[in-house]
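User: two proteins, same treatment. go.

Assistant:
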Amino acid sequence: MLPIILTLIDDEDKISFEKIYEKYRLRIYNISFGILKSSELAEDAASETFLYLAKSYNRIKELEPHRLDYYILLTARNTALDMIKKEKKHRDNVPFDDDTMLTNAELERYDTEYLKECIKRLDFKEREILYLRFNCGLDFKTISAALGITAAAARKRLQYAKADLRKLLEGGEQHE
């Protein structure tokens, strides 16, 4: 909550936004959960909703209470629906897999030096997500906090990294 509040100008706005946050946080979460059917994604959607509201606070603070209520709840709904659209788009581009896509048995058939070279060919963000997930054993919520992205984005980034590593290992090119 603190970084969102820092985007507001004066103390009066901060107090006013905190009141909005307290009044709407559960409703926004419930709307998001109803659409996304995942508590983790609903939390991400609620955070994105409040970030958007904080950024546009100067425009919305003068709205009448019933219009503000409508605007906030509509923003929450649209944020959740946008997350579904993004998820479907990415799901179509990279097939979903679990953490066993590249198993130890699969990796053992490659020479260690070749494996290292393929990993070095990945971009920094892909190497970073692979390191955090597999070397450090971090969960997606922790990774998302460390990288400043949503948990859904962390999952997708890991999917792309694993797909690109597989392509490189098999002699192909990584995605653009």
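Protein 2:
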Amino acid sequence: MFDIGFQELILILVIALLVFGPKRLPELGRALGRALREFRRASEEFRSTLETNLHINEPDPIAATPEPAPAESAPASPAPVTEPLPDSVLNPYGEGNEAPSGEPYWAQRGSRLFHARSCGWAGRIPEPERVYFKRVSEAKEQGFTTCPVCEPREPD
């Protein structure tokens, strides 16, 4: 990790023994071990919080067609029905029309976040999956939340 050899480690331990003395050296070792353990735990918790909030490791949900249940099995509980967004929301400019170059906000279908045009995450959304918005309030009305990276806001 630090690329310290055996001789360097012995030299560091001898200097620490001379500076702190034989009585305090075990205490310092335990305190350093606790501090490293707490730092590792805090950094792991921070990383997992970021991944959870931004859904970094989760692929976009794919709409799967339900398979028919076999006749011999017990009837399964019905799956929750999610209505697809109407075409007027997905592409308010009509079939085959592109969004005007001035559309400042967009989101991905099935996602919860919307982004400003300048956001790096917005560029990763494939064109057929984009939902366009003229104002932040439009996106929020349709249930989208602001991207924590670009934090889109209405211009003053």
